[in-house]
């Protein structure tokens, strides 16, 4: 039997549940509601959540090609165009960065990508060397700068990507834990540790390693990615490898985002099974992804996944949010991505 089959089946089950429960078609367009009926604001349209919906649907299409999913991707793409009046942007630079990543995953030739990456690069505050969280904000944080660095690394603006990645490392890395803190506001570091910040810092390092001009640069970026994976492994060790949960709302996506980039690291560092350290980093990343995917699967009830994999899913509260179910699907899709690694 194909060793990837169980993981792919679980990812497909999560996908089917999200699409059936949340995604609605309106003629040739589609978009997702924020929660199941009966929840306040259930029909709200979330820009950031749609970025991750588009992104994970494209992951699923790579893992399990299907023309029906291709049509849904196109309908969602049209839906985002309609809901943003064709601009594909918001005043929040973190959201713009996430949407740019989704578009790059969907289609690198999409003409909107250059406009969005230019918006991100132009918004960097030269006095700080980083992107603010939003127009007029004095918060400069990892959720804006790390995904922006990934997006810019995939564009013609690699220099800006290197600078943002370096700013995150120099300003937000916690010397005590090796993890990435949340941000800086009015000169004061916000010390909260969130899962998704670790994920995009790993992703930023790997994106820069991939396009490095020389072996020394590539090695430096790889070392940063490896050290972040190891820091996450230490962070979660006392809880049997389970990632910290962040409830519903936006927090429902946080752990899934980390799982996505841990999967990237697992694949990246599995490329040389003669290097003991690379093999250990790949194994650590793969184990974290699989442990969390297994816990989510075990705690599901029907087709509903929990916001926290330490407890069963509930038919009320946070578990009814699109973000929570989308975060679980991202984690299960990440597990499908690493399931073929045998080293």
UniProtKB/TrEMBL annotation:
InterPro entries: 6-hairpin_glycosidase_sf, Glyco_hydro_76, MUG_Protein. Gene3D superfamilies: 1.50.10.20. It holds the Pfam family Glyco_hydro_76. It comes from the Bacteria. PANTHER family: MEIOTICALLY UP-REGULATED GENE 191 PROTEIN (PTHR47791). This is Alpha-1,6-mannanase (GH76 family). It comes from Microbacterium trichothecenolyticum (Aureobacterium trichothecenolyticum).
């Amino acid at each position: 039997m194909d060793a990837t089959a169980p993981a792919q089946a679980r990812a497909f089950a999560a996908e089917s549940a999200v699409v059936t429960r949340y995604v609605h078609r309106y003629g040739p367009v589609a978009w997702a509601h924020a929660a199941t009926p009966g929840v306040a604001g259930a029909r709200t349209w979330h820009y950031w959540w749609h970025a991750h919906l588009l992104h994970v649907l494209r992951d699923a299409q790579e893992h399990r090609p299907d023309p029906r999913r291709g049509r849904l991707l196109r309908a969602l793409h049209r839906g985002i165009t309609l809901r943003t009046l064709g601009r594909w942007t918001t005043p929040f630079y973190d959201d713009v960065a996430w949407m740019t990543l989704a578009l790059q995953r969907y289609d690198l030739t999409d003409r909107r990508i250059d406009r969005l990456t230019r918006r991100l690069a132009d918004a960097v505050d030269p006095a700080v060397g980083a992107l603010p969280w939003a127009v007029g904000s004095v918060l400069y944080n990892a959720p804006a700068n790390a995904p922006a660095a990934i997006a810019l690394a995939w564009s013609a603006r690699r220099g800006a990507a290197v600078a943002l990645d370096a700013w995150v490392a120099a300003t937000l890395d916690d010397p005590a834990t090796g993890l990435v803190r949340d941000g800086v506001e009015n000169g004061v570091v916000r010390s909260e540790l969130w899962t998704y910040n670790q994920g995009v810092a790993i992703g930023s390092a790997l994106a820069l390693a991939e396009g490095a001009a020389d072996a020394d640069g590539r090695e430096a970026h790889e070392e940063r990615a490896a050290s972040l994976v190891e820091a996450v492994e230490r962070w979660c060790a006392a809880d049997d490898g389970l990632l910290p949960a962040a409830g519903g709302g936006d927090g429902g996506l946080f752990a899934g985002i980390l799982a996505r980039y841990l999967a990237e690291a697992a694949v990246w560092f599995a490329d040389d099974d003669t290097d003991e350290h690379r093999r250990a980093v790949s194994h650590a990343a793969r184990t974290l992804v699989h442990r969390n995917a297994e816990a989510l699967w075990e705690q599901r009830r029907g087709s509903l996944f929990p916001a926290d994999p330490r407890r069963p899913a509930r038919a009320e509260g946070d578990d009814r949010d699109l973000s929570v179910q989308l975060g679980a699907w991202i984690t299960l899709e990440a597990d499908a991505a690493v399931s073929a690694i045998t080293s």
